[in-house]
Amino acid sequence: MPETTAPSRLGGTALTLAYDGRTVAEDLSVAIPDRSFTVIVGPNACGKSTLLRALSRLLKPKAGTVVLDGTDIATLPTKQVARIVGLLPQTSIAPDGITVADLVSRGRHPHQGLLRQWSRQDEQIVAESMAATGVTDLADRAVDELSGGQRQRVWTAMVLAQQTPLLLLDEPTTYLDIAHQVDILDLCARLHEDEGRTLVAVLHDLNQAARYATHLIVLCDGRVAACGRPEEIVTAELVHQVFGLTCRVIEDPESGTPLVVPGARRRSGA
């Protein structure tokens, strides 16, 4: 895997984050290494999605600063941010009746302007994004008629069509069966490895995070419990500390990355 020692284009300093009137993090600082595949993990309600929303400027911190390319992200024009940072939120609502092709095409809007209208290149990028996520055959279907898994892949295609150097993905494998989960994570890995994009994803599955991440951020109670390469930080002690789970951490026989094996349940009568 590529090294993640590059400087950070995106990060937050001394952040206080609140959601629905509840403070979920105070004095939280993170740095996303450039050209990394960073995965954020942690228990439920520890602030993972809230942090991602703050990094994308979707949520304004109560205190602290989110910095993009050395500048407070709050001071940058919206369209400029949209050309650099793409976001797949945890829940997305499509306009009534919009087709898959039309929704994916909206990913090209940040690149439009008075001097640049829809082009053949835009058309090609939309087609490639749909093909990469396996939704080409759904192009003429209404988004609100699709299954949860199909909609998730369509929204992912829209974010890909935005063609930003930074991609933020909040639980991109939600609603997907195991085969499509692997497809999406493999796609993310290719975007990172082949195109040099910086990805930040929130995942629930620690083993998937350890397999795909080049940089792992482990949150607990609104603070960073550990960060670094998965093979350097994922230990049985850390998993117990953060998740309260007794386990063994062994080498994944397929990828060589850390594999968390929960302790055996004591059977009745044993």
Automatic annotation (TrEMBL):
This is ABC transporter ATP-binding protein. Pfam families: ABC_tran. One of its GO terms (molecular function) is ATP binding. Residues 10-246 form the ABC transporter domain. Keywords: ATP-binding, Cell membrane, Ion transport, Iron, Iron transport, Membrane, Nucleotide-binding, Transport. The keyword Hydrolase does not apply. It is found in: Cell membrane. The keyword ATP-binding applies. Its main location: membrane. It is a peripheral membrane protein. It comes from Catenulispora pinistramenti. It comes from the Bacteria. The lineage of its organism: Bacteria, Bacillati, Actinomycetota, Actinomycetes, Catenulisporales.
